[in-house]
Every structure is written in structure tokens, then in C-alpha cells.
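Quick one:
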Amino acid sequence: MGTVRFSVGRHTKADEIDRAVKIIVKSLKPLLPDSVSDQTILSDDLTDIKLTHFTASLGCACKLRPQALEKVLANLPPSIDPNALVDAATNDDAAVYKVRDDLAVVQTVDFFTPIIDDPYAFGAISAANSLSDIYAMGATPIFGLNIVGFPSSRLPLKVLEEILRGAHDKASEAGITILGGHTVDDLEPKYGMAVTGLVAPDKVIRNSTGKPGDALILTKPLGLGILTTALKQGLVNRSIQTKLIEIMAGLNKTAAECMAAFPVNACTDVTGFGLLGHLHEMTEGAGVDAEINLSAVPILPEARQMAEMEVIPGGTLNNLAFVGPHVNFDPSLSRIDQILLADAQTSGGLLISLPASEADGLLAALADKNIQAALIGHMTQLGKGQINVIKG
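Output:
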């Protein structure tokens, strides 16, 4: 679809412009993708279907801008239920509700548009992403429910079947069952899950309870948002695609099991708001400042190459604009460095805050399970949640 431009004279009236716009819109409406057009594929042959071409934003980058979300939530009343142990106040990964003194229910919901063209891989990645919120809270998932938006007039139902099969297999790997769900017809394909977990009330790990001096450990590399955007544009090869699927479909279950053996103070998973955005939620909620060492942050090298070519998702740029006032970047850091730290991730790793004396032990435990985690910085002092990023 191209751009329609027209010129008007200096004496053209507003009602004349309005009529012209209405005529143009009426003429173009049949060409929009919600009608049966050249973007409709109803054959059961899935070989040439590219799911990412049926959506504007990819994966967690389709989240509402954090600026907009913050504005809306600020106008809603807070929860007042004494059994609500964790609510939306600190932007945590899941809600936690105490049902008795020794048991709490952990509930999360997460869904998004395709991050990858392959339907099976998309289902697996989205399921892993949904489960991650439960793991980040220190809880154990027990079952999930599917959440589906599907353009049945534009894509064959075989695509939906493959998405659900990928999710089913990933849920089975996590040791849970998907018990049902809800499906609506939509212009874009979307998939995710509502996941329920259990935890002892005194074992809940929040994102807002980090302490000065804590070490910060990240369990997956950054750059997923940039590289999936590059993949959609045909700029990376199949080996990179395979690597991306492996990272994003990887469960955070093992990392969470390792974490459970250590006195962790806080945790979150790094997803749509990027490393800096989710770290800011941690620091602001805890009332502490933090320092990140760029050279220690694991970043997929191909992501830097693509960012230097200006292959950058809009969600990543929104993240950087939002978190910018809360971050002090070393003057030697480039714009690309800043973008990589704000890159919108899908099914990213856990960001763990624990006493510095325990960091080596956790890193060793993760390495024993073939998780290449990294010590990327520290919580520093009581403050307003400011983040300092140094070159290292």
C-alpha cells in the first residue's frame, strides 16, 4: 500500500477537504487486509505462510507503550483486598492471592502477535513466555488456558492447529496441562496463555524487593527484538532463526529451580519493556539505584550489526524514550548501545537480584545446567530508582 498525497489551493474550504478524504477512504477500503485479498491464504499447505506478515508488531514489541499504560493505570483505584499479596502497584510479573496461610495462587496472562513465521514455533515461544511470569515469582505452574485471536478468513485452520500443538508440547515440557481457553476471530493472529501457579506466601519473589549491594544476574542474552525484526525483513539467515527460536522457546524453569536454592531478594523476567525498562520497575519499586556494566551484558552479536543498519523495532525506541529520564548513560556509550539495552524482548531471561556473596554460587549452579548467565551489575544505594550504565 502506497501513500496518497493531494494538494489544495489556498482558497479550498474545510468541507471540500473532508469530502475529498471521504471519497479516497471509500475507494481504498476494499483494499485493506480485513477483506479477502492477496493476503488471504486458505490452503492447508503451510510451507509459504509467513505469520509475521499478518501483523504490524512482533511478539512482546506489540505491547502498549509503557507511557500510555502508566497513564491509564494511574487513574484506576488500587486493590484493597488484604489477601492480595501482589497486585499491579509495582508492575510485577503476576498477581498473587493468598487462599490460606500456607498457600497462595499466582495468576498471569500474556499473549501477543507472531514473533516468528513458523506456527508451531510461535505457539511454543508464546507458551514459554507465558510460563516465565510464574517462574519469576518463585512459583510452580499447575495449568494453563489458551487465549487466541485468529483471522479465520485469511489463514487456514491448520495454522491454528500448529500454534496450539506447539503450545501443548511446551506446556508438557513444563509439566503442566492446558485445560481449555477462549478464541475470537481477529484481523491479526494472536496467541498466549493465562497460567495459574502455586507458591507458599512466604516464598513469593517480587520484583520490588531488591536491596543495596545485591548482584544482578541475567540468564538470557539481549537482542531478540532487533533480530526478529531483521528476520521479518529477510536480513538474517536460517542459522540465526534457529538460534532465536531456541532462545525464545527455552523455558525459564531450570533457571528458576536454580534460583530457588539461593536467598534471592527480587526477580523479574525481561520481556517487552527491555532490560532497562524491567530493571527500572525493580529499582523504582525497591527504592534503590543500580549500576549496569555494558561490557558484562550478554548481547547477541548479530543484533548489534542489525541495529547499526537501523533495523530497530518501534517498541524498542518507545522503551528507550520512556526509561531515558531514569538512566544515566556513560558519555562513551553510543546510541546503539542504549538501544540494545532497551530492546523489546520476547520470552527473555530472568533478571535476578541477590546478595553479592551468593552470586558466584548461583552462576555456577546455572552453568552446571548449561545456562550461560552473566553478572551484569549491582543494586547500589537507596534512591529513586536511577540506573547508571557504565562502559566497563
